[in-house]
TrEMBL record:
Keywords: Phosphate transport, Signal, Transport. Belongs to the PstS family. GO terms for cellular component: ATP-binding cassette (ABC) transporter complex. This is Phosphate-binding protein. The keyword Nucleotide-binding does not apply. Residues 27-48 have a biased composition (Low complexity). One of its GO terms (molecular function) is phosphate ion binding. One of its GO terms (biological process) is phosphate ion transmembrane transport. Phosphate binds at residues 62-64, 92, 110, 197-199.
Length: 376
C-alpha cells in the first residue's frame, strides 16, 4: 500500500509546532503535577485535572476529522494551555501507519485497524491499543452537473456509476429515478480518493453490502479500480469535483458545506434520504458491535442495508486510536484527558456545531469512557 502525505492547510499550520513522539517514547513534556482527569464522559476534561498538564503530542490521520480536530484542540487548550497537540490530516492509512511506527501518539482513522495493524499497535503500545469511534458523519454523494441541483439515486445506480458501467447522466437507470428532471447527455466523471482513505473504505463497504451484484469488490481503503479521476484528501476531491461538469464524488458531508456541489438523495426503503448527522447516528445505533476484540477496542459492523428512512447508510464512525499507557506518565495523562474531552458532551457538541457531525449516542460514549478510565 502506497501512502501519500498532504500539505497541512493554513488553518492547521497556525497551530503550534509538531512534536514527533513515538508510542513508547517520552513526549518531551513535563510530568503533570496533579491527578488524572475525572472519569465522567459528560464533564469537559478541561475542568478535570487538579493541576495543569504540560507536554507536546503529535497526532494525525483522518482528513474527515480535520475540522473536528481543530475545534477539539481549541476547546482543550482553553484549560490545558500547557499542552501542544498537533494533528496532521494525512489520511487514515498514513494515520495508522504513523501510529504503529511511533511517530504519532494517537491517530484518527475512518476505518478500523485490521488484525495485522492491531498486532503492530500492540507491539508499539506494549499492550492492547485503544480504538473507538469519536466522530460520526454522513458521507455525501456529491455532484456538479450544470442545470441540475436535485438528484435521486439508489445503491445499484451509485455502484454502477462508480464502477464505470453507467457513463452518461441521461442513462435510463438515472432518469427513471428522477421523473421530471431534465438530465443531459453529459459524460459522468466519477472522482475518487487517490490516497489510502477511511472514507473510501466506508463508501466501498456501503457499495459491497448494499449493491453486491453491481459492486463485486470488497471494502478497501484504496480505491479498487482505475476508472474515473483521482484526487488526494477530502479537499482534493472537493476541488476536482467542483472544477468539472458532470462530476460525482463521495465526500465527508462536512467537506461539502460551503461549496457549489449538490448532494444526491439515496433510496432507503421506499424513500429518498439526504445525508444528515441524525441519520448517521441512528444507523450507528442500529449497527452491531464487533465481538471477539480486546476490551479496549470498541468497533462496529456498520449497518449499510437498513430500510428505515430515519437512518442514512453511507456514513463513517471515525475512530481514535491510542495506547492504554505510555512510558512517559505525562503522555498518558494528556492522552487520557484528551480522549475524555473529545467524547464528552461539550466536545461532541463543538464538533457537531462546526463539522456537521453527529454527537455520540450516550450508550456508546459511556462504553468509551469506561475504556478511558482504565488508562495508565
Amino acid at each position: 500500500m502506497k501512502f501519500k502525505r498532504i500539505i497541512i492547510p493554513a488553518l492547521f499550520a497556525a497551530t503550534v509546532g509538531l512534536a514527533a513522539c513515538g508510542g513508547n517514547d517520552a513526549s518531551g513534556g513535563a510530568s503533570p503535577s496533579g491527578s488524572a482527569p475525572a472519569d465522567s464522559a459528560s464533564s469537559p476534561a478541561a475542568s478535570s485535572p487538579a493541576a495543569e498538564l504540560s507536554g507536546k503530542i503529535a497526532a494525525g490521520g483522518s482528513s474527515a476529522q480535520q475540522v473536528a480536530q481543530q475545534v477539539w484542540r481549541a476547546g482543550f487548550s482553553q484549560t490545558n494551555g500547557g499542552v501542544t497537540i498537533t494533528y496532521d490530516p494525512v489520511g487514515s492509512g498514513d494515520g495508522q501507519k504513523n501510529f504503529v511506527s511511533g511517530a504519532y501518539k494517537f491517530a484518527g482513522s475512518d476505518s478500523a485497524m485490521d488484525d495485522a495493524t492491531v498486532a503492530q499497535a500492540k507491539s508499539q503500545c506494549g499492550g492492547d491499543p485503544i480504538e473507538f469511534p469519536v466522530y460520526i458523519s454522513p458521507i455525501a454523494v456529491a455532484f456538479h452537473l450544470e442545470g441540475v441541483t436535485s438528484l435521486n439515486l439508489d445503491a445499484n445506480t451509485v455502484a454502477k456509476i462508480f464502477a464505470g458501467k453507467i457513463t452518461k447522466w441521461n442513462d435510463p437507470a438515472i432518469t427513471q429515478l428522477n421523473p421530471g428532471v431534465n438530465l443531459p447527455s453529459t459524460a459522468i466523471s466519477p472522482v475518487h480518493r487517490s490516497d489510502s482513505s477511511g472514507t473510501t473504505f466506508n463508501f466501498t463497504d456501503y457499495l459491497s453490502k448494499a449493491a453486491p451484484k453491481s459492486w463485486t469488490k470488497p471494502a478497501n481503503t484504496d480505491w479498487p479500480t482505475t476508472k474515473g479521476e483521482s484526487a488526494e484528501g477530502t479537499s482534493g476531491v472537493v476541488g476536482a469535483a467542483q472544477g468539472g461538469n458532470g462530476t460525482i464524488a463521495y465526500i465527508d458531508d462536512s467537506g461539502v458545506h460551503g461549496t457549489k456541489l449538490s448532494v444526491a438523495k439515496i433510496k432507503v426503503g421506499s424513500k429518498f434520504v439526504a445525508p444528515t448527522a441524525a441519520g448517521a447516528a441512528a444507523a450507528l445505533e442500529s449497527s452491531k458491535q464487533i465481538s471477539g476484540t480486546p476490551a479496549s477496542i470498541l468497533t462496529y459492523d456498520l449497518n449499510r442495508t437498513t430500510t428505515d428512512p430515519s437512518e442514512y447508510p453511507i456514513f463513517m464512525a471515525s475512530n481514535e486510536i491510542a495506547c492504554q499507557s505510555y512510558s512517559d506518565p505525562s503522555t498518558t495523562a494528556i492522552v487520557k484527558a484528551w480522549l475524555t474531552y473529545i467524547i464528552s458532551e461539550n466536545g461532541q457538541k463543538a464538533a457537531a456545531a462546526n463539522a456537521y457531525s453527529a454527537p455520540l449516542p450516550s450508550t456508546v460514549a459511556a462504553k468509551e469512557q469506561a475504556i478511558i478510565d482504565q488508562m495508565g
